[in-house]
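User: Here's a chain of 110 residues. Predict its fold as tokens.
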Amino acid sequence: MKFMMFVVSDPQPDSEQDQSDIDLWVDPLDASGKRVIGEVLAPPSDSTVVRVRGGKVLTTRGPFAETSEVILGFDILDVENLDEAIEIASRHPMARNGQIELRAFAPWDE
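Assistant: Prediction complete.
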């Protein structure tokens, strides 16, 4: 099963900012093939929101929604099941300082 793992900030972390070496989380997952790809994202202030209304393309610079939580990065996991995805996500440094959201890939109807 494939899961998108969103790494999200949290205005009320469980502990002080964890300076854990993210490579200690990434390297074994990459070696095992369980982490397909992952990236850190630019800040919301650098985002562009795109909408089409009435046939016109409308763009807005910066974050569209006012929120104290933002997506900081993502990883795509290829694992056996949700339990394995949860176990992997629970070891990510941001699970203690932010939050991790897991979403399974939805199957495409053919």
